[in-house]
Design goal:
There is one protein chain. This protein has about 450 residues and is of the alpha/beta class. It contains 14 helices and 15 strands. The strands form 3 sheets. The protein has an 8-stranded mixed β-sheet, with helices on both faces. Strands 10-9-13-14-15 form a 5-stranded parallel β-sheet, with helices on one face. Strand 5, helix 6 and strand 6 form a beta-alpha-beta unit. Helix 1 packs parallel to helix 7 and helix 8 crosses helix 10. It is elongated and about 85 Å long. The N and C termini lie far apart (about 85 Å). It binds nicotinamide-adenine-dinucleotide (NAD). Nicotinamide-adenine-dinucleotide binds next to helix 5.
Length: about 450
């Protein structure tokens, strides 16, 4: 190990290293807090001055990070934040947690990574460890990040150290948080990997070293593709069960009693969040560049992407039993966040379902205890909306309630007793009822249906 590497290893072990996190969102803020808690003086860098101001005021804006934790770390002078990349000059380690969205064409949008790395490069000095955490295609660390950093004249593995370690944060999960989710780490060289493992090992309980940055990048994409494909499979099964008059929820519950070789996935109104709908397309884009056609990813994308249309169809069927049309019906969307008990609306299928219903002439309202308002630009209806109260009076006012996110805060028994019609895409109601249309389950008989 070189003198630079040995010095950094010693600084990390003694917690004298100054840690930095670039991008203070759902991934970056919890990580910065973990580093600060484990004894490093930690600086967060973000372009969003509201996030920086919140941290400097000792406030958290990420539900999984308690404000008291940020306040305590601020008081102890362990955590600060800035919009100015000049802070990089003081740092010994830098973790990059910036967004990796898709372009409209479903190609990776690397602009956030490129911009963050260029800003870091302007202040890079010898002896620093840079770890990329953003989810991305295999090859990003050595094809994109390394050349940008080496344009400074410094060499990876010799003058500075470079690694990739995929983030595995699960927002809203009270059991598994940054510190107790095993962390996969791959380095550009063995020394890079060792230094990165040392840094993460200071804050995270279990480190899983792998042989290269490409393996580490691929691990994350396997994990998320696995979910996307299995959700696609169970969504297709739900469509099948719908036709065959079988309850898909009952099927999955019974199947999951098998103690080996099965893992339960559940159908729903489509994929949401910053990861599962996006990451597999990073992989398919890169695979196609190597002349490989990844069929599972495309098929799962097709099935999952069609689920909002299926929900629209289900709402039409439900209203039909009341001799009503979607056009002109008052529809209450229950839950717009992409999953239960969180406030994140990114890529939420609720926005697609709302857009489709609005496009057919429905009057849309929504209720979500975690999302007080939706601005006009964030859904295809183009109208600013405010969450209405989730109470008995509200439930009785609509032609149909569509449950798209099964938040625990909703009183489903009350909803069933007050609502005229419910379309339940999450099995939140959990039982058959004459006014509840569950996705992938036998439907209640139409009111006033007659034979002959
Ligand atoms: N949210 C999750 O559940 C999750 C889970 C695993 C992996 N990831 C991955 O982690 C990465 C970050 O995701 P996130 O959910 O934290 O995103 P986020 O949007 O919550 O946070 C990203 C932050 O980066 C900041 N930023 C953007 N460009 C910047 C730049 N050039 N310099 C400094 N700051 C910049 C933004 O202002 C924002 O605060 C993505 O690649 C994502 O795929 C996310």
């Amino acid at each position: 190990m070189s003198a630079l590497a040995t010095a950094l290893r010693e600084k990390i072990a003694s917690r004298r290293a100054r840690a930095g996190v670039v991008g203070l969102g759902y991934v970056g803020l919890p990580l910065a807090v973990e580093f600060a808690r484990s004894g490093f003086r930690t600086t967060g860098i973000d372009l969003d001055d509201r996030k920086v101001a919140a941290i400097m005021d000792g406030r958290s804006y990420i539900p999984d990070v308690p404000t008291e934790d940020v306040a305590k770390l601020r008081q102890a002078n362990r955590l600060d934040a800035t919009t100015d990349f000049a802070a990089v000059a003081e740092l010994d380690t830098i973790n990059i947690c910036v967004p990796t969205p898709l372009r409209k064409s479903k190609d990776p949008d690397m602009s956030y990574i490129v911009s963050a790395v260029e800003s870091i490069a302007r202040h890079l000095r010898p002896g620093v460890l840079v770890c990329l955490e953003s989810t991305t295609y295999p090859g990003t660390t050595d094809e994109v990040v390394q050349p940008l950093l080496e344009a400074t004249g410094l060499k990876a593995g010799k003058d500075f150290f470079l690694a990739f370690s995929p983030e595995r944060v699960d927002p809203g999960n009270p059991t598994f948080q940054t510190h107790n989710v095993p962390k996969v780490v791959g380095g550009t060289t063995a020394t890079c990997a060792e230094l990165a493992a040392g840094l993460y090992g200071a804050a995270i309980e279990t480190i899983v070293p792998v042989s290269s940055t490409r393996v580490a990048e691929m691990v994350k994409l396997l994990e998320n593709t696995f979910r996307a494909v299995n959700i696609g499979l169970v969504n297709e099964l739900a469509l099948m069960c719908d036709r065959m008059n079988i309850d898909v929820w009952e099927v999955v519950e019974a199947a999951r009693t098998k103690p080996f070789g099965f893992m339960a996935f559940y159908p729903g109104p489509g994929l949401g969040g910053h990861c599962i709908p996006i990451d597999p397309f990073y992989l398919s884009w890169k695979a196609k560049q190597s002349g490989f056609d990844p069929r599972f990813i495309e098929l799962a994308g097709h099935i999952n992407g069609s689920m909002p249309h299926y929900v629209l169809e289900k709402v039409g069927e439900a209203l039909n039993t009341r001799r009503k049309a979607v056009n002109g019906s008052r529809i209450l969307i229950a839950g717009v966040a992409y999953k239960r008990d969180i406030d994140d609306m990114r890529e939420s299928p609720a926005l697609d379902v709302m857009g489709l219903l609005h496009g057919k002439g429905a009057q849309i309202s929504y209720t979500d205890p975690h999302v007080p308002e939706i601005d006009a630009r964030s859904w295809p209806g183009g109208i600013a909306l405010e969450s209405v109260p989730a109470d008995a009076q509200t439930f009785g006012q609509y032609d149909c309630i569509v449950i798209l996110t099964d938040h625990r805060a909703f009183d489903y028994a009350e909803m069933v007793s007050r609502a005229d019609l419910i379309v339940d895409t999450r099995n939140a109601v959990k039982h058959a009822a004459p006014n509840v249309f569950r996705l992938g389950a036998p439907q209640p008989a139409p009111q006033g249906a007659s034979v002959g």
